[in-house]
Amino acid sequence: MIAVAIPAMGRDGSRGGNEDPACYDAEPIRRNGHLNWKFHATLYAACNRPHLLAMIEANYGHVSRFTRALVSQATGKERPQREHYRLLELCRDGEIKKAVGCW
Q1: Sign of CA dihedral 13, 17, 18, 22
Q2: pTM of the prediction?
Q3: Is the CB of residue 36 less than 8 Å from the CB of residue 61?
Q4: CA 10 to CA 101: how far, in whole Å?
Q5: pLDDT tens-digit readout, 70-95
Q6: Which end of the chain is more exposed for a tag (fewer CB within 10 A), N or C?
Q7: Which uninterrupted H or E stretch holds 45?
Q8: Residue 41 reports pLDDT greater than 70
Q9: 70-89 burial, b for 16+ CB within 10 Å, e for fewer?
Q10: Over 90: is that where the pLDDT of 99 sits?
Q11: Long-range contacts: 95-100, Cβ < 8 Å, 24+?
């Protein structure tokens, strides 16, 4: 989905990629799952595939309630934040293959 979204984003991320990962830095770790989805959904929105986005969100909702706390506690915030900054940079630079490889 990110491969379809990147070409539709503006260079500044104004169409789908203007989510700033820095706004999560001060948030408590228990909110990481929600904030992670918000970040990725914002990037995906540029692909203009609302039905596909809704399907992914529904799947995420079903799975995340079981894994959110465990993953947040195991990974912490530093590594995911680094990865989010890198992904956003790649999206803004139009680096589709590298952004897809971030997963």
Answers
A1: negative
A2: 0.76
A3: no
A4: 21
A5: 666 667 778 888 888 899 899 989 99
A6: C
A7: none
A8: yes
A9: eebeeeeeeebbeebeebbe
A10: yes
A11: 95/6, 96/2, 96/3, 96/6, 96/7, 99/2, 99/3, 99/6, 100/2, 100/3
DSSP string spanning 70-101?
Answer: HHHHHHTTHHHHHHHHHHHHHHHTT-HHHHHH
Q: What value does the mean pLDDT take over residues 52-58?
A: 90
Q: Which residues contact 85 (CB under 8 A, 6 or more apart)?
A: 21
d(Cα 38, Cα 43) in Å, to the nearest integer? 9
Q: Give how far Cα 92 sits from Cα of 11, 38, 46, 53, 59, Å.
A: 5, 18, 12, 20, 27
